[in-house]
Amino acid sequence: MALIRIEDPADPRVSGFLDIRERDLTGRQGLFVAEGEVVLNVLTSPQSLCRPVSLLIDSKRVEALGQVLAGIDDDVPVYVAEQAVLDGVAYSGPRAKA
Hints:
- This protein has one domain (about 5-90).
- Helix content is about 20%, strand content about 10%.
- It has three helices and three strands.
- Strands 1-3-2 form a three-stranded parallel sheet.
């Protein structure tokens, strides 16, 4: 599994993660958002009926999630970003001018 570094929240490879709201936790174009280590463990377990399409992970969490990430299929992109980039992805709407 190769980690794909994301340096810009506008990177089109993470466009599916842009502006995720609570409603998206239950469905966006037939997909859902899974968040947190426990959910990721369940999602990647052999018993899971779902498989991840892609992952976006804080770079600080990669080492701690190593065992879970090892179970991800090789064709699933694993995007890694710093917290500032993740914040930009989470909110990509118009910004207030300072």
